[in-house]
Design brief:
By secondary structure, the protein is of the alpha/beta class. The chain has one domain: Rossmann fold (3-Layer(aba) Sandwich). It is built from twelve helices and 13 strands. The protein has a nine-stranded mixed β-sheet, with helices on both faces. It has a two-stranded antiparallel ribbon with strand order 7-8. β2 and β3 form a beta hairpin. The longest helix has 24 residues. The radius of gyration is 20 Å and the shape is globular.
Length: about 375
């Protein structure tokens, strides 16, 4: 009996290590960038074409020097058009807030685990091009929307204090991301109430986003709350990409049960072929399926109730295949055409307009809907 238990334990541990190696959300396929310190200007990816001088500026907001309990966020402006590539300029918190236009949506983008500072800087350039490219491919007014879209890349310490025991590190980084959602929530709460906000999170970055939304709705994370003083006045949207997030955590009373309370719509790009997320349930004993692999199950929608219509599940496996990498998403123009109008509030407040065709489709599915040309489940659209 004991030997049988040992064999089961060995199998479980092997599965955990396989999950960790496959789901490490690593950067192996991406080019290596020269290391640069966060306290000095950092060059972006070598060889990347420079923006013209008139290109819109983006920002990087860093909590990499913050602990779980206290934080002095660091702000950078990403300037473009220089011959040697993009450069960062440090800003104060007041300068950052003064630079934002309260009438233009702000899109916060959050990376996943095992992302270094040089990669965070380089990715920010490519992700901004990808997102704005999705707007430029739309209607005539999209050029103006693309030029005025305000993008803030939120980077957190997703590669620090690693033990290199991957199952342990993955669990630890997921919890750390949730705690750093507090600093993202704090930033959003400081914005004017009329400022529309969208949030995009990849992998464990979706956990940062879910945590921030939960806090803004009046919930607590690790016993700490941070409600948004703007309340229901602020329009908020969120998009999850390959979310490393237990599917039941969005249910009322669960870990991030307040996330849907504060969100106008939640676009969940899930991938049934994701090799890392297929192993996600094995990263801990009695693990659950992730919302990033199969979407939000029908049983969860029933438990969520009338807010379930806010969640839009779209299977993007035909575009990214078995990839879990961030780059697999931000290098796919079709996905930019899906995410960008949603994040920029370029469509309706509650409806899902057809602003572009991610997959050509001659007709709507029976009893179904479409979002930017993508077939959606046959769920009724309700007004808030």
């Amino acid at each position: 009996m004991q030997s049988g238990w040992d064999a089961c334990d060995l199998i479980w541990r092997a599965a955990v290590w396989a999950a960790a190696l496959g789901a490490a959300f690593c950067r192996a396929e991406e080019r290596v960038m020269p290391r640069s310190a966060e306290n000095r200007p950092a060059a972006a990816a070598a060889g990347a074409p420079a923006h013209p001088p008139s290109a819109p500026s983006d920002w990087i907001l860093s909590s990499r020097r913050c602990s779980d309990r206290e934080c002095a966020l660091r702000y950078f402006r990403l300037n473009s058009g220089e011959p040697t590539g993009e450069r960062l300029r440090a800003l104060s918190a007041d300068e950052f807030r003064a630079a934002l236009d309260p009438g233009v949506p702000v899109c916060f983008i959050v990376h996943g685990s095992f992302t270094t500072w040089p990669h965070a800087v380089g990715d920010s350039v490519r992700i901004s091009r990808w997102l704005r490219g999705g707007l430029r491919g739309e209607a005539a007014h999209a050029e103006e929307a693309a030029a005025r879209l305000q993008i803030v890349h939120f980077t957190w310490p997703s590669d620090q204090d690693l033990t290199y025991l991957l199952p342990h590190d993955i669990l630890r980084l997921g919890e750390r991301g949730a705690l750093h959602g507090r600093w993202l929530a704090m930033t959003i709460a400081d914005l004017p109430p009329e400022q529309p906000v969208s949030l995009i999170g990849h992998s464990h970055g979706a956990r940062v986003v879910a945590s921030a939304l939960h806090l803004l709705s009046g919930g607590t994370v690790a016993g700490v709350g941070f409600p948004d003083p703007a309340g229901d006045q602020r329009r908020v949207r969120a998009a999850f990409l390959a979310a490393a997030l237990d599917h039941q955590w969005l249910l009322p009373g669960e870990r991030y049960g307040g996330a849907l309370v504060r969100t106008e719509r939640l676009l969940n790009l899930h991938n049934t072929h994701d090799a890392a997320l297929n192993l996600y349930p094995f990263h801990k004993p009695f693990g659950s399926e992730s919302v990033g692999r199969a979407g939000l199950p029908l049983r969860d929608r029933g438990r969520i109730g009338e807010r379930a219509w806010k969640v839009i599940d779209v299977d993007v496996s035909r575009f990214v295949g078995m990839n879990h990498y961030w780059s697999a998403y931000y290098s796919t123009p079709e996905l930019a055409g899906l995410v960008a109008p949603f994040a920029a509030f370029a469509d309706g407040e509650n409806d899902a307009p057809e602003l572009g065709a991610v997959r050509p489709s001659a007709r709507r599915p029976a009893n179904g809907r479409m979002l930017h040309g993508v077939d959606l489940p046959p769920e009724p659209v309700r007004r808030r």
